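User: Let's play a game. I give you a shape written as tokens, and you guess the letters that built it. Ready? Here's round one.
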């Protein structure tokens, strides 16, 4: 019978990975608001607002911490810069140009895209029907929004650790 790794806790691991990334590669990622790391928690209820607030905090912490000027300079040096794309797509172009394995690129980029998509769609930019469909689909897939958030944090932790492994 398989055993669970009780020592791995995704949110604590993500916060540590972000702290390590900031120490190792501050030109790539840094937190502009030190309180965000402390403010990020798992939703403790099934409240839609609580879940959306945590997605918003996760996006501000992880995605907004990426430094576009640094990525732009790398992309220019690799001749793959596109001024029409945002930070996540620019990072993806860099990884593709560096011929990083597509599975590893997906492991790094997908959680960032998911977080940013959810923040954009749920934080007032979409119709109530669209946001409701997204919520229902995630509940159908994960069981509830708390489990979805934990899963997203776990994938984000792997993403950040993947970025640390890549030479950027």
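Assistant: Ready! My guess for every position:
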């Amino acid at each position: 019978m398989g055993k669970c790794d009780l020592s791995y806790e995704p949110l604590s691991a993500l916060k540590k990975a972000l702290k390590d990334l900031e120490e190792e590669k501050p030109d790539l990622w840094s937190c502009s608001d030190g309180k965000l790391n402390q403010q990020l928690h798992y939703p403790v209820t099934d409240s839609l607002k609580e879940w959306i607030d945590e997605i918003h905090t996760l996006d501000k912490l992880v995605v907004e911490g990426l430094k576009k000027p640094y990525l732009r300079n790398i992309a220019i040096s690799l001749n793959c810069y596109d001024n029409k794309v945002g930070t996540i797509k620019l990072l993806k172009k860099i990884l593709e140009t560096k011929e990083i394995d597509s599975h590893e690129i997906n492991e790094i980029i997908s959680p960032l895209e998911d977080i940013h998509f959810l923040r954009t769609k749920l934080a007032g930019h979409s119709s109530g029907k669209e946001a409701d469909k997204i919520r229902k689909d995630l509940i159908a897939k994960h069981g509830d929004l708390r489990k979805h958030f934990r899963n997203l944090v776990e994938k984000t932790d792997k993403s950040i650790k993947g970025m640390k492994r890549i030479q950027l």
